[in-house]
Write a structure and sequence with these properties.
5 helices, globular, 4-stranded mixed beta sheet, alpha+beta
Length: 139
């Protein structure tokens, strides 16, 4: 596994029992050609340490979290930050999303986040990374 605080990478904290979230993280891993991200489930010790560091209970946010140095992105801002750092067809959408006021983007994000378990289900345990990507996950 990767070191806990690799400051050269942005840290993505995600709901490790959410099927949609796990699929999204697998998508990010597959398209992170520049190796810009490290990952940890919100249910991990890493997330607990990051929550203490930033004095925020990330689990109650109902959001993916991106830690970029000393900056924390949540909700739609986190998704936009992730997409901007990937080489995908979604890149133009990330720039267009900035034209939408954050309170509107975040309402859409929150509505989806509140229904994600109903729409996609959840696992009993956090995902276990494959050997090929285990080094991208923080312990």
């Amino acid at each position: 596994m990767a070191p806990v605080l690799d400051h050269s990478k942005d840290i993505i904290l995600f709901d490790g029992v959410c099927n949609f979230c796990n699929s999204y993280i697998n998508y990010v891993i597959a398209h992170d050609k520049a190796n810009k991200f490290a990952f940890a489930p919100l249910q991990s010790r890493t997330a607990t340490r990051m929550a203490a560091r930033f004095q925020t209970d990330f689990k109650t946010l109902n959001s993916v979290v991106v830690i970029h140095g000393d900056v924390v992105y949540t909700h739609s801002a986190a998704v936009i930050h992730i997409i901007k750092n990937l080489s995908t067809i979604w890149l133009p959408m990330a720039y267009l999303a900035h034209l939408v006021p954050p309170f509107i983007r975040n309402r859409v994000y929150t509505a989806f986040a509140n229904k994600r378990y109903v729409l996609f289900g959840q696992s009993e345990t956090c995902m276990i990374p494959s050997i090929q990507v285990k080094n991208k996950f923080l312990n």
